[in-house]
Task: structure prediction
Amino acid sequence: MLNDPHFGNVLMWKIDKTPPVFIDSRYNLYGNTLLQDYWTMAENKAGAQQLLDKYSIDWIFLNPKMQLVKALSQDPQWTVLYQDSEAAIVARKSHKQGN
Result:
């Protein structure tokens, strides 16, 4: 799952069996490469799709204003499961949905 760092904090804090989060707000724990990969994906920059595949990302839990959410909501291989003004959950249709 590719998640907003602050959503990752809440997931780890509030859910007993926390799903594997990609990142949380303790940025110093992740290293520059992973942080750059996160922003490449979240902002839907060149190479974002390859990184989604590299990390086996099948779920997106980000702010709906992020460029990746906007792009995937128009992609027939992804489906929007939930969206409001603060959060969106998008899932890949064609892969095993577990990450």
Notes: Residues 2-92 form one domain. The beta strands are 2-3, 59-62, 78-83, 88-92. The two ends are 5 Å apart (CA to CA). The CA atoms of residues 75 and 92 lie 9 Å apart.
